[in-house]
Amino acid sequence: MTKHRVLIVDDNRDAALSMSELLVVAGFEVETCFDGPSALKAAATFAPEACLLDINMPGMDGYALARQIRGLFPDRPPLLATMTAYGDYAHLERAVDAGFDLQFTKPAAPTEVIEQIRAGLRAGTLFPEPEVESKEPGSALHRLLNRVTGLWSKPRES
């Protein structure tokens, strides 16, 4: 059985290594990095199917990293998930703008992270595009924000 490839990026080494170990035990192949530039290099060769990115990192934040990783794989970008202490609406908007599919607020339950990544990888996205044309463009996170709040009005930039 092929293991799904997950890239974990967090400047907090303990957090990154702990999540890495949990995902390995859960059956994923994992590459772990501690900053944006090394994550970009790793992504180019590792070709992750999913990325779990911290947001608040020195040098390159998770939003910029997500955009650049999406740029590496324009035809089939990996599932992108944030794992951050930020859970307010403004940060969720920024996550949508950066192209994230999932948001986990620290401390996230490891079982939830594993289940949501598996579900997203199985479906191709967390919520597969409906058979009929949707009036809700964007990622699963974008559509979820739209459903929950009804406040999202600007389209997501590709």
Question: What key phrases describe this protein's structure?
Answer:
158 residues, alpha/beta, Rossmann fold, transcription regulation, Response regulator
CATH class (first level) name: Alpha Beta
User: What is the CA-atom radius of gyration, in angstroms?
Assistant: 15 Å
What would you give as the CATH superfamily? Answer: Response regulator
Please count the beta strands (DSSP E, at least 2 residues each): 5
Strand proportion, as a percent range, falls in: 15-25%
Uncertain segments: 125-136, 147-158
The name CATH uses for the topology is: Rossmann fold
Q: What is the helix/strand order?
A: EHEHEHEHEHH
Shape: globular
Largest pleated sheet: 5 strands, parallel
Specify the structural class.
alpha/beta
Query: pLDDT average, as an integer?
Result: 83
What is the helical fraction, as a range of percent?
40-55%
Count helical runs. 6
CATH architecture: 3-Layer(aba) Sandwich
Explain this structure to me?
The structure is a single chain. 44% of the residues lie in helices and 15% in strands. By secondary structure, it is an alpha/beta fold. The chain has one domain: Rossmann fold (3-Layer(aba) Sandwich), CATH 3.40.50.2300. Strand 1 (5-9), helix 1 (13-25) and strand 2 (29-33) form a beta-alpha-beta unit. Helix 2 (36-46) packs parallel to helix 3 (62-72) and helix 3 (62-72) packs parallel to helix 4 (89-98). The longest helix is centred in the C-terminal third of the chain and has 14 residues, at 110-123.
